[in-house]
Amino acid sequence: MDASQRWGSRVKTMQSHEKNRENTPEKISASEAGTTDELLVHVPARWGDMDAYGHVNNVAILSVMEEARVALFGPPPSSGQKPTVAPQPPIPLFDLVAEGVQALIAEHGIRYLAQLPYTGEPVPVRLSVEKVSAASVRIGYSILSPMDGRECVRAFTVLAFWDSVAGRLTRLSPEQRELLSSYLPQK
Question: How far apart are CA 126 and CA 98, in angstroms?
Fold first, then answer.
């Protein structure tokens, strides 16, 4: 049984913005993830991500996080013309963003736990919604080795929403808060 059958229409295969690259978010079991509120995405490895030691370069981790975040939420608002054939992301947050509102990175945190080997294989990334506040959302990442599944990087991103017309931060709408809150870890 695939993830879309287990979890319904909230989990679908995601086509990356680059031709022939595919991310597949899937809800993973509590034994795999630690919580039942994490999604697993496989981010395609790029040759340029490798450093001289055969590992994914520390700077490339930000790109892995970005690709995983786009697979989770879809293309961010104000990012140009949206693809017409892209499937619905598992958490369609950006579909609920008003015209002129931008999703901006307010903060990143990255802890390197082990070397992430470059294998050419897609990099597994577990994602979770960690916190929802009035005007931001914190996304957690656990970046895994494609060889043995061990956690190599633990990271987070805080997205804030900026109203480019008013020139100020904007609060999440009740619909956005409800959508995101449904993915918070269950206590």
Answer: 28
Pairing of strands 136-144, 151-163: antiparallel
Structure tokens at 184: 């918070």
Q: Tell me: the pLDDT tens digits for 99-120?
A: 889 999 999 999 999 999 999 9
The pTM (predicted TM-score) of the whole model is 0.79
Q: Are 107 and 157 in contact (CB under 8 A)?
A: yes
Cα separation, 67 vs 22, in Å, equals 10
Strand partners for 105: 159
Rounded to whole angstroms, the Cα distance separating 66 from 157 reads: 9
d(CA 184, CA 187): 9
